[in-house]
From TrEMBL:
Belongs to the UPF0410 family. It comes from Paenibacillus rhizophilus. Pfam families: Transgly_assoc. This is GlsB/YeaQ/YmgE family stress response membrane protein. It is a multi-pass membrane protein. InterPro entries: Transgly_assoc (IPR007341).
Length: 85
């Protein structure tokens, strides 16, 4: 039970940090940050491996980098779609 709660909290924190560093405007508030944190953690672990401190089954540094990449790509796709219409 505590593992799930810690994972959700870490996903939210990682999503907020990644959004702040990437300078994006992540839609969806807390839920959007949580989704971005989970996807970013997966993407970061896939691209960069698992190094640095691990909290709640998240390797923090790759998760933040992966979240920044995800938010940047999401913003880029959003701008391209707005420009196309």
């Amino acid at each position: 039970m505590w593992g799930i709660i810690i994972s959700i909290v870490m996903a939210i924190v990682i999503g907020i940090i990644g959004d702040a560093i990437a300078g994006g405007d992540m839609p969806g508030g807390i839920i959007g940050s949580m989704v971005a944190g989970f996807i970013g953690a997966w993407l970061g672990a896939y691209l960069f491996g698992s190094f640095g401190p691990v909290i709640g089954n998240f390797a923090v540094i790759p998760a933040i980098i992966g979240t920044m990449l995800f938010i940047f790509l999401l913003g880029l796709i959003s701008r391209l779609l707005r420009r196309a219409t």
